[in-house]
Amino acid sequence: MAIPASLQKGLKLPVIAAPMFLVSGPDLVVEACNAGIIGTFPSLNQRTTEGYREWLHDIKARLNPDAAAFGVNHIVHPTNPRLMADMMVSVEEKVPLIITSLGAVRDVVDAVHGYGGVVFHDIANVRHARKAAQAGVDGLILVANGAGGHAGVINPFALVEEVRSFFDGTIILSGCLSTGGDVAAAIMMGADFAYMGTRFISTTESMAQPEYKQMVVEAGASDITYTPAVSGIPANFLTPSLVANGIDPKSLPEHKLDMADEAKAWKTVWSAGQGSAGVRDVLPTAQLVRRLADEFTQACDKFDKKRL
Ligand SMILES: Cc1cc2nc3c(=O)[nH]c(=O)nc-3n(C[C@H](O)[C@H](O)[C@H](O)COP(=O)(O)O)c2cc1C
Predict the structure, then answer these.
(1) pTM attached to this predicted model
(2) Which DSSP state fits 145?
């Protein structure tokens, strides 16, 4: 299986603008979808379930008839008290793509399939990939080494190869994909979609503060620190942002620092992946998608010329 039929509508490039806590909202989703890639956001970026429903209405009203599909991320874990209520809204509103994190649950998959939706689940290791495949998900998002947010530690080539050996659904590759050439490389490796987070922080429509967008532009791969100190689970953060908050990146504890709740922590210390190396400007999402498409075509042409 490659890309599910319901997600092919309006799709101009096999790219998903990944859901990002405190960063992706309706403006980013609408611009991404209208430009021909899949736009997504975490439902928890809205403070309440009713607010979440309002965002869905807002997005649907602003999508062009030929827009690509959109998706929503739900954290499937007992620590998310909003899960049931938000899922009910997703089912009622028939959200085309549901992205689940942490738990891959058969009931969620069945509920989404019930209205014709598609479920992609994100994993960072092969054990979780097998569990999610057994739960019947349509696609697996392979979060490889260097990704923004809660990144994995496995090399993308190894991860794609191993998961492909037992999973014939859609494979979505995540981690350090920031240019159209990277998208072409992901497809060449056997992925069906490229999943891009960090690149979309530095867009006009992202909800990140201007200083955060600029920090991503200025950061290279070595300006990213992988640590559990901010969130309890290892994640990638911009080193200058740790320093700006008085946290010494050279003496980080192996446990979570006392930074109040998760939202406060992520609002204070900014996350990005090593793919910041490929982010050199802040620009409107529509313009970024056009550039990605051009770079993708150029990379394919270059490859054709290199064939023996
Ligand atoms: C600031 C930030 C917030 C994120 N928040 C979430 C989230 O709420 N849910 C989720 O599933 N993934 C989240 N991620 C991970 C992304 O969805 C995606 O897997 C990752 O950004 C892809 O790697 P890249 O940043 O190298 O492109 C986040 C990533 C970043 C950078």
Answers:
(1) 0.98
(2) B
